[in-house]
Every structure is written in C-alpha cells, then in structure tokens.
Amino acid sequence: MEKGSAAGGSSRPPPMPSLEDFPFEGKKPVKNPFVPIGALVTAGVLTAGLVSFRYGNSRLGQKLMRARVVAQGVTVALMVGSAYYYGDQIKLFKKGSSP
Asked: Which residues form the HIG1 domain (predicted)?
C-alpha cells in the first residue's frame, strides 16, 4: 500500500467551513412563528397516534394519523407561503434600493 492512501494513511479530515463560505452570509433569517408551532403540533399528533396504536385503539390511531397529515400539510403550506411572501419582499427591497 502507498503512503497517504485513504485506506491506511493518517489523512486529516477536511477543515470545517466558516460562515464566510456560505452564500447567505449577509441575510437575516426570516422567522415565522407558525412553522415551529405547526411542527410541534404535527409531532404531538404523531406521538398520540402511535401511543393509541400501541394500546390497541386502532380507530383513534387512524384518525390521529389523518390529523397528522393535515397538520403536516398546513405546516408545509406555511413554509412555502412565508418563503414566497418574504422572497417577494426581498426582491422589492433590492429593486427599490438599487440606483
């Protein structure tokens, strides 16, 4: 085997990227409080559904799984809607601020 090969060498891991390496370094993240709330509701309904399946109440478990799908869909719709809304706001800001 050759020295420095990946199989038996003492190669170092690649360096961790710094914040300067990311393309969105100057932008503030947009915060939508409904997305984390929707994620928590989805997780809660999923947990309740799994617990009800565990205890043998399959009818309630099935209803909770359907409610989970609805909650998950609403959460994804909020994510897409807020990205679309704030994406337009960023475009308008860039157009208005350019000379």
From this structure: 1-97
pLDDT tens for 46-94 read: 999 999 999 999 999 999 999 999 999 999 998 888 888 777 666 665 6
Number of domains in the chain: 1
- The answer to whether position 18 is within a domain reads no
C-alpha closest to that of 81 among 39, 44, 30, 43: 30
Q: How many CA atoms lie within 13 A of 59 on its CB side?
A: 0
The answer to the question of residue 73 being in a domain is yes
Determine the residue type at 96: G
